[in-house]
Protein: WW domain-containing protein
Amino acid sequence: MSGASGDSHSADNTASDGSRLSLPSIHRAPRHKPSSSTASSSSSIRLIIPSNPNVHDPLTESPDEMRSRHSISPPPVKRAGKRVSLASRRSRSASPAGSDSSASSHNTVTSATLSVSTRPSWGGGPIAHPDPDVLRSTALSQDDERSYNYRPFMPSVLDPMSNEPPHIVPRMGEEDYVVQPGQCEFKPGEKLPRGWSRMTHPDGRPYFWHEQHRALTVEWMPEPLISTCVNTVLGYILADLSRSTGRSKEDQIVIGLEPLPEIGPDEFAALYYLVNPEKECVYWVEENSLAWDMQEPNAQLEPQMAGLYLRYQFYKHWDNFPNVQRTSTKQILQWQKALDDARADVVFSNTSTVNYNAKELSNMIEMVDCMLSRSKAAKKHGVKLEGEWLPGRMMQHIYHDRFLNLYSQRGARSDRQQSVFNNPPDQVKPSWFIGTCSALLFNAPQHHLAGLNRMWVDRVLAKEPWKVLVSTLLREWESHRLVATILVTANVSFLGVNDLPPGIVQITCFLSAISSSTSFVLITALEGRIRQMEKHDIVRAQNWLNLLNNENFGLEILAVLLGLPYGLTMWAMIFFTVSFLSFCLHDAQKLTQGVVGGYFGLHVVILLWSLWVSQEDRKPIQEHKKIPKVVVKRTAKVVAKPIRRLTRSWTMNRSLKSSAAFANQVGVGCWMYLQPLKPGIP
Structure:
């Protein structure tokens, strides 16, 4: 995270996803190439921050004024509703002003490029805001004797990234590795500055620890350039802390260096934060605004929420440097109680805000019990328990979830389907887009949208419902893909029939084959994407939802995407049924057509009635007295007309036939009666 001092001209305003778990390393920050006038020509080791005359204070100038004077990069484009990523903000650095030595006499900021052997003149002030684009109204106080300042940053910035390693290991060449006779101890070959020792994180990462001053850093201390800069910054921090009486002996100092490649290859800005293990808090030597970092809940927070956020950052720090952390029995009991409360909430609530299931919480409680046993054993031997990695890995997520759910604040979210902004998920009004797509895809998008809204209340993703959704989708898609495969085979075989009637038979058969093939391909593509998210943590899913979230339609686009496999499979089945039924009724006798058509119509009525009865949002029949009458009337209107016509035509034909036969008989009788008898016939 970028600090407060100096001019910031970088335009790396990448939109952030609000997540703190997927941040790049601090060693590889993107930079824009500066103009030639800003490059430093000196090759000595430097800590560079512009000097701070009383005329043009970088902390009181607006970003536009700084850019107009230096013209390094265009002003960043701010997007509504989004914020610059923490990595981009951290990559912002102070840029030097013009190199003219007479600039101070003309009321301009001079470029003071000082080696580390000389005390650097850093642009400073009582407020060190992490966002360099914030307009500062506080100038350097006349009573402040310090001529330097530091950039505050958070422990979450130090998370390692697999796609951006801090150091690229060279491949093996012709090196030889010799073991001396009787050698059983092996140490790193690099020499460290006095007082510093090398520690190894449980996951294998090395970092460095100064036991006397209780300082930590992830910078590579065996390099003389890095070690000189870190020791210089450490001296300044210790000098500031010596003037205050609030620091405890157990407090820790974490130092980082921000490369400034636009100024020079060997120039850095200092980053730091302090840790109070007793109070489980992160702090700084001067005021620091956390408004930029505490934007995840997107809500107005009470003052105690800052302490909760800094406690989350404290356990982030514990996770980054576990070897030097000490554990007490009192802390272990507090962690045990917090986990027991979380397990009780999960077991007795179906909509708990805890992002763990009961089995995972039981496993964590079991690990805490083992840690408590080790603590009691260490207490018997008169030593303190050190080097436990579990608290940092475990409690950072507990406190981060509490922060997102506004724990201890008025209106806190105690149910994951509760909206703190009074936007209940079941009252989200669907748009015309989801209504049209649901009508075409058999209401599948509407069903998925309801589940997504319940799972992503106030844009906070719940872990357990997401896991349930992923497993359910994978099972459903497996069955849809099997049906689509069978339909593709059936349609291809059906099209191979000799003398297949043209017209509706062939058209619907082709449509069924196209729908089933599209469903198969879509399921295969979506299944690969979902399985990748299933293997990763919840942050990737949160980023995906943020990517597909639309300002006008919300998650309706994602709901339609998830409902397409079901809808296409249903259309493929319907088209195949129509094609096969048309083939069966083609050139068939009227009796066959009547029987098959009537039986098919009966099944259609049963299907529609079943779908209507199984609706969740309709009124019960027992509470709606008019439903049976309405059903009878509508059914009578639909069915009575053709029945009445058939009956009328049959009755008229029958009556006409009967009248004609009767008239014929009467006429024959009369004719026979009136005919004279032929001679010879008695």
User: Anything to note?
Assistant: Residues 317-404 form one domain.
